[in-house]
Design goal:
Rossmann fold; Luciferase, domain 3; 3 domains; 26 strands; binds adenosine monophosphate; single chain; five-stranded parallel β-sheet; about 30% helix; 18 helices; GMP Synthetase, Chain A, domain 3; nine-stranded mixed β-sheet; alpha/beta
Length: about 600
């Protein structure tokens, strides 16, 4: 646990929204926070899209730019709040015309194009449920999530549809409509052009009554075993989106905000769309991929004032612009509008916090949350000291605890009761007291896994942390063995299943291997079926196969052949042991190891 701290030397140009942490925390209540939201006119409930769009469209912000979308080709599309209100109304009418209503699922498989934002917010207006998928997923994760979500509508492009959906369309019984963004619908049977439907639709739409407890968003996240889990979020989450953007991202009127996360993941949805629009600021959207020069240019040209990014991206920037200098690349751009930088998704190296201060003139504020929490829960705040390497302190309204762990590594429950560790510096599982508005309401169709995520009135996060004497939280690791790679949560089981579809593979054990830039990369240990050669050609074939099936964000980077994977007595591959052996770590408790099948030799060096 580092003791180094960063105190803000130059006063911020604007007064931070959270100026006195203890005072705000002591007087905070979610009920009071809820009064910052308008609610639907006539007391008809609470709808995220109304708070994010329509309330501004009928205010003096109507003409302000809501979205500034930078295309891959650097083209710029600006959308005002008033225009966004109209296009989202059109899309809501499109859904209504198609017979899609309250609670029906609309899935997006799109790049960060302007239409994505229309579809997301229009779906919420219609009180249908939006489920975003990452466009870099391969056909397997896409089909699995379309099935698990009971998707009735898919909005995608002709190219993505052809490459990732068309071959599996027949197995997707619930999927009634495929709407194509851009050209190409004519040549694709079973699809319709979105533009054609939008042209016919009215740009007036009255949002139907919406209960704060109505399902609004469905985000898939990965577990250690089993299929991906669909975390259900409701309209009431908007209260937490608003408050956390106010306190943890310090959004002020007039800000230009850029969240680099893709809306296919929860960060890109909560903070790339909902929270900043609720604050009525201008949201910068970049359709392009990471490129150091491009990113510095966007920060400068778009006059970004608040920037929310990820540790992997910062580490990539640090490689092009080391702290030792010279800072030629960032200095060739005017980053003078930048006021606040925050990061999320993986552990942020203390070095990156200090790098921000040296190279960009601002420290990076790490914060912590996850798909299930829906919004930022723990953060370093603008007005408070930063302890580099720490994720910070809980938001007002959020109560965090460190729970004692049992033998399985997870929080120990004795007759349903947990033990809260009060002593500073002790490692345990991070838990959050139930009751914040953006808490997921369960995993879709999976009561058992939902129940396992709670004990007493605590939500168990699956993360291991320590808390220091002053309340700063320090990330230690995961209590399970899901893999965080470049900010994406990857289920080792999902990767293993895809590999086992290849005729050469008898079994696979998948682990995360530490990587200086991506945090972890995915490595698979594969047992080959008889008759297959453990050579370079098979390895390349399997790497390419996994990439095609899973997509580049999820597929393994390395494959090693291992004819004797370690198993538990119940027959599961012992990933924990594979990882320990791979990294030369202590093997820990191996009493459940199935002796006959354990491998004795170190794993073969991989490609
Ligand atoms: P996801 O649900 O995909 O957003 O992933 C959430 C997980 O990412 C958390 O449970 C953590 O394991 C990790 N994570 C998120 N933010 C941080 C952070 N600031 N420091 C360390 N790990 C983080």
């Amino acid at each position: 646990m580092r003791r180094e701290t960063i105190r803000k030397t130059s006063p911020p140009c604007v007064q931070p929204n959270l100026d006195d942490y203890e005072k705000v925390r002591a007087s905070f209540s979610w009920a009071k926070a809820r009064t910052a939201l308008l609610g639907l006119p006539g007391g008809r409930g609470l709808n995220i899209a109304y708070e994010a769009v329509d309330r501004h469209a009928t205010s003096d912000r109507a003409g302000a730019v809501a979205l500034r979308c930078v295309g891959r080709d650097d083209s710029l599309t600006c959308v005002t709040y008033e225009e966004l209100a109209r296009t989202t109304a059109r899309f809501a009418n499109v859904l209504r015309t198609l017979g899609i209503g309250h609670g029906d699922r609309v899935v997006t498989l799109l790049s960060r194009c302007p239409e994505l934002y229309t579809v997301v917010l229009g779906t919420l207006k219609n009180t249908s449920v939006l489920c975003p998928l990452f466009s870099a997923f391969g056909p397997d994760p896409v089909a699995q999530r379309l099935t698990l979500s009971d998707a009735q509508v898919l909005v995608t492009t002709a190219d993505l549809y052809r490459r990732k959906v068309a071959a599996q369309r027949e197995s997707l019984a619930a999927l009634r409509h495929v709407l194509i963004v851009g050209d190409g619908a004519d040549a694709l049977p079973g699809t319709v052009s979105l533009a054609a439907l939008m042209a016919e639709a009215s740009d007036r739409f009255t949002i139907p009554p919406t209960s704060p407890h109505d399902m609004a968003l469905l985000h898939f996240t990965s577990g250690t075993t089993g299929t991906p889990k669909g975390a259900v979020h409701v309209h009431e989450a908007a209260v937490a989106h608003y408050v956390t953007a106010l306190y943890a991202l310090d959004l002020h009127e007039g800000d230009v905000f850029w969240c680099t996360a893709d809306p296919g993941w929860v960060t890109g949805m909560s903070y790339g769309i909902v929270a900043p629009l609720m604050h009525g600021v201008t949201v910068v959207v970049d359709e392009g991929d990471y490129d150091a020069r491009r990113w510095y240019r966007i920060l400068a040209e778009q006059r970004v004032s608040v920037w929310y990014t990820a540790p992997t991206a910062l580490r990539m920037l640090m490689r092009t612009t080391p702290r030792s200098g010279p800072y030629d690349l960032p200095r060739s751009f005017d980053l003078g509008a930048l006021r606040f930088i925050a990061s999320v998704g993986e552990p942020l190296n203390p070095e990156a916090v200090v790098w921000g201060k040296d190279v960009l003139g601002l420290p990076v504020h790490d914060n912590w949350w996850q798909t299930e929490t829906g919004a930022i829960m723990i953060a370093n705040f603008a007005a408070c000291e930063i302890r580099p390497g720490s994720m910070g302190r809980p938001l007002p309204g959020v109560e965090a605890a460190v729970l004692q762990r049992g033998e399985d590594g997870r929080a120990m429950t004795t007759e349903g009761r947990v033990t809260v560790l009060e002593e500073p510096g002790v490692e345990g599982e991070l838990a959050l007291r139930v009751g914040w508005p953006s808490m997921f309401r369960g995993y879709l169709h999976d009561e058992a896994r939902t129940a396992a995520a709670f004990a007493e009135d605590w939500y168990l996060t699956g993360d291991l942390v320590r808390r220091d004497a002053e309340g700063w939280h320090w990330f230690v690791g995961r209590a399970d063995d899901v893999i965080k790679s470049a900010g994406h949560l990857i289920g080792p089981f999902e990767v293993g299943c895809a590999l086992m579809e290849h005729p050469a593979v008898a079994e696979a054990g998948v682990i995360g291997r530490p990587d200086p830039v991506a945090g972890n990369t995915v490595k698979a240990f594969v047992t080959l079926r008889p008759g297959f050669d453990a050579g370079m050609q098979t390895r390349q074939e399997l790497l390419a196969f996994a990439r095609r099936r899973l997509g580049p964000a999820v597929a393994p980077r390395e494959i090693a052949f291992e004819q004797h994977l370690p198993h538990t007595r119940s027959g599961k591959v012992m990933r924990r042991l594979l990882r320990a052996r791979e990294l030369g770590l202590p093997e820990g408790d191996i009493s459940t190891l199935e002796k006959d099948l354990s491998f004795r030799d170190p794993p073969e060096a991989s490609a």
